């Protein structure tokens, strides 16, 4: 634990060497001045106070010198203390910012499958609670370094004054380290559990708040509160356990130096009486011991925070070491507005749990055409859409965009060429403009309005209070489901992709509007090739070709009319969709 803790501190010093140097230097100057003060106090007592007491008078110059020495030392002590604290703070917050950046970068580089296994609340806890725990020893670190320096100087001073007093000091420090070592060993498992529970509470809390609407709609407030309370209570108990252990050790750790002062005083008095040291030396030694007693605790603070910091660092490293990033190639597709060709060549996909979602999928989306993916629920449509946008890679076969394997393309080229719009739209807590442009070069207001028109979203955007500057709230809470979907469609279109993948992306949009949007996409001058997961007959009928999926395999493909006649399962499914749509419309009309 000690070795790993010190290695962690070493890593953090390497990350922020300058603030550490400022803090440590400040601490050393501070401690040197504190020790120097011991001599001054000794000199003031023996050279000014005692003669004044014995003779009844003292030279004014000597008094002024004493005052100036005390004042000067105090000013330097104060300034160096500021440097120590500022250095420690800058260092700690600097390291925290560094790790938070690295964690965020890692999260965003990791594949979808990794994210599916890690709750958002836990990820938040990694970036907050774990980073803070890992860096906690940095706050007292410069102080502790200064103290070690102080102890080293004090030891020299003790030995130069008297060996018996030096032995007292020599015994005190090993005892202090031994006590801390026992504390760290006992604390390690408790700190680990507490850190795990922090992540658990964060995960449960995040899920409850994220699903607040469901919780309220289903009247599950009490049950959710209970679920949260169970985790929170466990965390409370774990933290009380940590506190109890601290409470048991802290008085001993804090009391040991005080005991040292007492023993040093007794030994010092005995040595003074034996004539081994004079009065000035006795005062100096006693003062040195008493000024050491408090700073020595800083070493205890650093050591006390080590178990928690090791656990925090391990959890941070776990994220930083996570692998599975998608490797991108170095091929660039030509920058042309012409629609792209997407070819699936015997594509297979198995989820990490072994579930084979797709097999032997072969079809092509020809340039400028629209292909509708139709299939019963769970047949693999979304998986196929994710493959087309390279959110996941196939476990067999290949996908080619304009003849290039998706895995060989650069990330930028792929992002420019293909855009995926998902069924559940994600809207950032920002303005309409920012949500659509995403700060992409070339996406100016004209492009944003063109995209809004193509997505059928220009009317409602124009009717918003501040138009493009309207803030849409977290996840777009101020918009309707259909408006959010159209906004995310506009976002995809603003990038002028050459391949558009729509995973049931217009399900919340009125069917007539949906047909208009899709018909508009086909007819526009810079039309993209479109792969659309479709449920409505009108949408399917707009497609040039239909690919019909059953249990992850293509069982038929052709035109909608052709498949209706030749493939019975297809005809049954589309008829079922149509009936459901008609029933929904009937219900809506009656409700109105
Ligand atoms: N992360 C996952 N891990 C394991 N299996 C998964 C995962 N996601 C989906 N599946 C499974 O893969 C199969 C295909 O899922 P997919 O979401 O592609 O179907 P879909 O046709 O889009 O369904 P729907 O129409 O209901 O959206 C399903 O059997 C599903 O249970």
UniProtKB/TrEMBL annotation:
Its main location: membrane. GO terms for molecular function: ABC-type transporter activity; ATP binding; ATP hydrolysis activity; ATPase-coupled lipid transmembrane transporter activity. It comes from the Bacteria. Keywords: ATP-binding, Cell membrane, Membrane, Nucleotide-binding, Transmembrane, Transmembrane helix, Transport. InterPro entries: AAA+_ATPase, ABC1_TM_dom, ABC1_TM_sf, ABC_transporter-like_ATP-bd, ABC_transporter-like_CS, P-loop_NTPase, Type_1_exporter. Residues 21-308 form the ABC transmembrane type-1 domain. The keyword Cytoplasm does not apply. Pfam families: ABC_membrane, ABC_tran. The chain crosses the membrane at residues 20-46, 58-76, 138-157, 163-183, 282-303. It is found in: Cell membrane. It is a multi-pass membrane protein. GO terms for cellular component: plasma membrane. Residues 342-576 form the ABC transporter domain. Belongs to the ABC transporter superfamily. Lipid exporter (TC 3.A.1.106) family. This is ABC transporter ATP-binding protein. The lineage of its organism: Bacteria, Bacillati, Actinomycetota, Actinomycetes, Glycomycetales.
């Amino acid at each position: 634990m000690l070795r790993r803790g010190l290695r962690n501190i070493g890593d953090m010093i390497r990350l922020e060497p300058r603030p550490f140097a400022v803090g440590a230097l400040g601490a050393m100057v501070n401690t040197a001045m504190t020790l120097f003060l011991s001599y001054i106090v000794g000199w003031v007592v023996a050279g000014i106070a005692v003669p004044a007491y014995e003779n009844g008078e003292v030279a004014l110059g000597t008094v002024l010198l004493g005052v100036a020495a005390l004042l000067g030392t105090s000013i330097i002590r104060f300034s160096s203390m500021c440097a120590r604290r500022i250095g420690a703070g800058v260092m700690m917050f600097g390291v925290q910012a560094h790790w938070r950046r690295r964690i965020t970068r890692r999260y965003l580089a990791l594949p979808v499958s990794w994210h599916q296994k890690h709750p958002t609340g836990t990820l938040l806890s990694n970036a907050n609670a774990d980073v803070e725990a890992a860096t906690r020893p940095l706050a007292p670190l410069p102080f502790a370094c200064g103290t070690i320096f102080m102890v080293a100087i004090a030891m020299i001073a003790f030995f130069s004054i008297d060996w018996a007093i030096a032995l007292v000091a020599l015994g005190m420090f090993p005892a202090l380290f031994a006590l801390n070592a026992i504390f760290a060993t006992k604390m390690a498992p408790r700190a680990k559990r507490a850190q795990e529970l922090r992540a658990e509470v964060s995960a449960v809390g995040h899920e409850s708040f994220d699903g607040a609407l469901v919780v309220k709609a289903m009247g599950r407030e009490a049950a959710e509160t209970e679920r949260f309370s169970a985790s929170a209570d466990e965390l409370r108990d774990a933290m009380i356990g940590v506190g109890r252990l601290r409470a048991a050790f802290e008085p001993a750790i804090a009391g040991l130096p005080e005991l040292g002062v007492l023993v040093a005083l007794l030994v010092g008095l005995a040595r003074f009486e034996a004539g081994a040291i004079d009065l000035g030396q006795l005062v100096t030694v006693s003062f040195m011991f008493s000024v050491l007693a408090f700073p020595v605790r800083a070493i205890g603070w650093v050591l006390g925070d080590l178990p928690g910091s090791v656990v925090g660092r391990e959890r941070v490293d776990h994220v930083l070491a996570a692998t599975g990033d998608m490797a991108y190639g170095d091929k660039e597709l030509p920058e042309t507005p012409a629609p792209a060709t997407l070819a699936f060549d015997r594509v297979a996909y198995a989820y990490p749990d072994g579930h084979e979602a797709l097999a032997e999928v072969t079809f092509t989306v020809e340039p400028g055409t629209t292909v509708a993916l139709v299939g019963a629920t769970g047949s693999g449509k979304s998986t196929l859409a994710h493959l087309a946008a390279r959110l996941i890679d196939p476990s067999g076969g290949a996908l080619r965009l304009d003849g290039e394997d998706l895995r060989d393309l650069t990330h930028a080229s792929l992002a420019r060429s293909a855009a995926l719009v998902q069924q559940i739209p994600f809207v950032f807590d920002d303005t309409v403009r920012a949500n659509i442009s995403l700060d992409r070069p070339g996406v100016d207001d004209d492009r944003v309005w063109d995209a809004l028109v193509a997505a059928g979203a220009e009317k409602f955007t124009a009717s918003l209070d501040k138009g493009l500057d309207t803030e849409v709230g977290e996840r777009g809470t101020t918009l309707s489901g259909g408006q959010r979907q159209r906004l995310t469609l506009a976002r995809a279109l603003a990038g002028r992709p050459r391949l558009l993948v729509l995973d049931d992306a217009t399900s919340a949009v009125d069917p007539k509007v949906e047909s208009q949007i899709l018909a508009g996409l086909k007819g526009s001058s810079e039309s993209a090739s479109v792969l659309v997961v479709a449920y409505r007959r009108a949408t399917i009928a707009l497609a040039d070709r239909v690919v019909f999926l059953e249990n992850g395999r293509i069982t038929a493909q052709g035109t909608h009319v052709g498949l209706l006649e030749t493939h019975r399962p297809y005809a049954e499914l589309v008829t079922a969709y149509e009936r459901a749509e008609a029933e929904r419309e009937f219900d809506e009309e009656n409700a109105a």
